[in-house]
């Protein structure tokens, strides 16, 4: 790899980013560590034929991770340690924040993460896999669950805490009254999601309450006519996935939170703005909105584009 950036625009970005991290007082010792990391990334982009940051996509980001995992150390033998790769990815995240804040780019690209063997990966379903799971939903409640977890991107706890009054069919909105950090937000429903929820509310939910407490406020009702727990809802999702009979899908160990990551991934891949995604998911910080591509234990990215 070349030692210097050739593009004047990339040189400008490297210098501006260096000032950005120093003004923000990110700790990097007395060296220009963060600038050096971004310089390596920009040189790699040049050699990959990318001359503008606006043209960087998740594909380049994942390929760069593959480069890092195979890159020899500059000192000593062997390849980069996992800790070093994580630092490179962290600095890329800061670089993306700089680019967004200074309007150098309009849309985010995904930055892969490196997870240890003891951590479960954040698996993402393809749109085709989402459609397949819908096909194996046995009733209106299961379709409504998929619609709220994937179509609205709610967290497991938010789904379990959802009350009937929080779903406005007239406005086409779901109100999350106490999201993470006790933040309130309104989430729009697509026409498809709205239709699934209408059927559940008008047909199946009353049946589940038949002969029981008609004043139950919970949106999702279990077989005993009471509020479904997050664990119970995850079990329902697991059953749907198992019924597909698709081995690769079952092996992903999908949870409700994976559906949340999936909709975020699909929104970004379809050029939704970061502010919309952040609001949709209920994130406070832009940094949190980066939904990372998944990897297996050998650190090979498993991403569907």
TrEMBL record:
SUPFAM superfamilies registered for this protein in UniProt: DNA breaking-rejoining enzymes
Keyword RNA-binding: no
Tagged with keyword DNA-binding: yes
Keyword field: DNA recombination, DNA-binding
Pfam families found in the cross-reference section: Phage_integrase (PF00589)
GO molecular function: DNA binding
Single biological process term from Gene Ontology: DNA integration
Source species, domain of life: Bacteria
Database matches in InterPro entries: DNA_brk_join_enz (IPR011010), Integrase-like_cat_sf (IPR013762), Integrase_catalytic (IPR002104), Integrase_recombinase_N (IPR010998), Tyrosine_recombinase_XerCD (IPR050090)
Tyr recombinase domain mapped to chain residues: 120-305
Record family assignment: Belongs to the 'phage' integrase family.
Protein's UniProt name: Phage integrase family protein
Organism: Flavobacterium johnsoniae (strain ATCC 17061 / DSM 2064 / JCM 8514 / BCRC 14874 / CCUG 350202 / NBRC 14942 / NCIMB 11054 / UW101) (Cytophaga johnsonae)
Upper taxonomic lineage: Bacteria, Pseudomonadati, Bacteroidota, Flavobacteriia, Flavobacteriales
């Amino acid at each position: 790899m070349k030692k210097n950036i050739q593009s004047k625009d990339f040189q400008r970005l490297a210098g501006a980013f260096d000032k950005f991290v120093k003004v923000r007082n990110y700790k990097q010792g007395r060296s220009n560590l963060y600038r050096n990391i971004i310089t390596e990334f920009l040189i790699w982009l040049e050699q990959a034929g990318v001359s503008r940051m606006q043209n960087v996509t998740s594909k380049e980001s994942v390929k760069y991770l593959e480069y890092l995992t195979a890159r020899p150390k500059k000192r000593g033998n062997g390849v980069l340690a996992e800790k070093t790769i994580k630092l490179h990815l962290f600095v890329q995240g800061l670089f993306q924040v700089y680019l967004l804040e200074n309007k150098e780019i309009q849309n985010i690209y995904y930055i892969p993460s490196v997870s240890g063997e003891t951590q479960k990966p954040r698996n993402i379903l393809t749109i085709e896999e989402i459609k397949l799971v819908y096909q194996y939903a046995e009733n209106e409640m299961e379709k409504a669950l998929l619609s709220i977890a994937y179509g609205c991107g709610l967290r497991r706890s938010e789904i379990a805490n959802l009350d009937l009054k929080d779903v406005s069919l007239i406005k086409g909105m779901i109100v999350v009254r106490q999201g993470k950090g006790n933040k309130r937000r309104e989430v729009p429903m697509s026409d498809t999601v709205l239709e699934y929820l209408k059927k559940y509310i008008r047909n199946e939910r009353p049946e589940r309450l038949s002969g029981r407490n008609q004043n139950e406020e919970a949106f999702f009702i279990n077989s005993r006519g009471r509020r479904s727990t997050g664990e119970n809802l995850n079990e329902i999702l697991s059953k749907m996935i198992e019924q597909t009979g698709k081995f690769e899908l079952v092996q992903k160990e999908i949870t409700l939170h994976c559906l949340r990551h999936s909709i975020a991934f699909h929104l970004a891949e379809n050029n939704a703005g970061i502010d919309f995604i952040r609001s949709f998911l209920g994130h406070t910080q832009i940094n949190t909105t980066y939904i990372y591509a998944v990897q297996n234990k050998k650190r090979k990215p498993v991403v569907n584009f």
